[in-house]
Design a protein that fits this description.
The chain is an alpha/beta fold and 294 residues long. 32% of the residues lie in helices and 17% in strands.
Length: 294
């Protein structure tokens, strides 16, 4: 796509970022800049450079490579990744919803108008299959809840959104979940929302509060059916695997749809373990299973 854009619009600057650039030190074909880590501040500085020639590209935090305008060659630079201060970022501009939607999140359903929002970034956990710790390096703080509520009101009134997908890598800790739910209830905003949760981190009274404030779906990363494999994957609940079924049942008892993430292809997997996986998942009984292959 980037190559096609450059062919049609050769003066258009292209920036590559996200999880997929973690192993890159040069600009791939079709791209002028490669940014690692959070993108808001580096992209702001890149735009300023394109407009004014400043700041020096070597000084832009998170920029690890750029294409020299004179030679067209990729230049690698020392990449000092810095996180953005979420509370200083403005409410994001939204693309036309009719042209950008995800069928995988149910947005194609007639009664669902979904939008993604971010409340916090990073993750306190270190699962060995996940690249989030390589991008965010722990928790990076949270947005001001007043701004979050303002954004939700805009999404409802201007775009007709009725469902929020909270895109935090893991929604938490529990104190933040409770504060968000209480703020949402106090605001009078009525909206459905979904998020990523971690087994063993949310008390029953908090799950009840989540349901009351509009939570209708949680994604639990279950990933394996035995403690040894969970330890290999560095899952925080490996020592209390029985909590998985308890948390799934608790959410379901409050009318919350549970999507369970499960990994197939662990180095410990055999034909026999697949039978165990199936029996375990029948016991846990999430409403939907999301299978990934390691």
């Amino acid at each position: 796509i980037a190559t096609a854009i450059k062919q049609a619009l050769p003066k258009t600057a292209t920036v590559l970022g996200g999880y997929h650039v973690l192993g890159l030190s040069d600009c791939p074909s079709g791209f002028d800049f490669v940014v690692k880590g959070e993108g808001e501040l580096p992209c702001r500085d890149i735009v300023q450079f394109l407009q004014t020639g400043r700041p020096n590209l070597d000084s832009i935090p998170g920029l690890c490579a750029y294409r020299d305008l004179a030679t067209g060659l990729s230049v690698s630079v020392k990449c000092n990744v810095m996180g953005a201060s979420l509370h200083t970022l403005p409410i994001p501009t939204r693309l036309p919803r009719e042209r950008y939607f995800s069928m995988s999140m149910g947005e194609n359903l007639a009664d669902t108008r979904l939008a993604c929002i971010v409340i916090g970034r990073g993750c306190a956990f270190h699962c060995d299959f996940c690249c989030t710790p390589q991008v965010f390096h722990g928790r990076h703080g949270y947005r001001d809840f007043d701004k979050v509520i303002e954004e939700i009101r805009f999404l409802q009134s201007q775009l007709g959104v009725n469902t929020l997908n909270i895109r935090d890598e893991t929604f938490g800790p529990e104190s933040v979940i409770r504060a968000f739910c209480q703020k949402l209830l106090k605001s009078g905003v009525k909206i459905k929302w979904r998020a990523f949760a971690v087994v063993g981190t949310v008390k029953p009274e908090t799950v009840a509060l989540m349901a009351e404030s509009g939570c209708h779906m949680l994604f639990y990363g279950i990933e394996a059916s035995d403690p040894d494999t969970l330890r290999l994957r560095r899952k925080s609940f490996a020592g209390h695997i029985e909590q998985i079924a308890k948390d799934v049942a608790l959410a379901q008892s409050h009318g919350i749809f549970v999507r369970g993430g499960f990994i197939v292809g662990h180095e410990t997997d055999t034909e026999d373990t697949f039978v165990r996986h199936l029996e375990f998942l029948k016991e846990v009984h999430p409403d939907e299973l999301y299978v990934s292959f390691l």
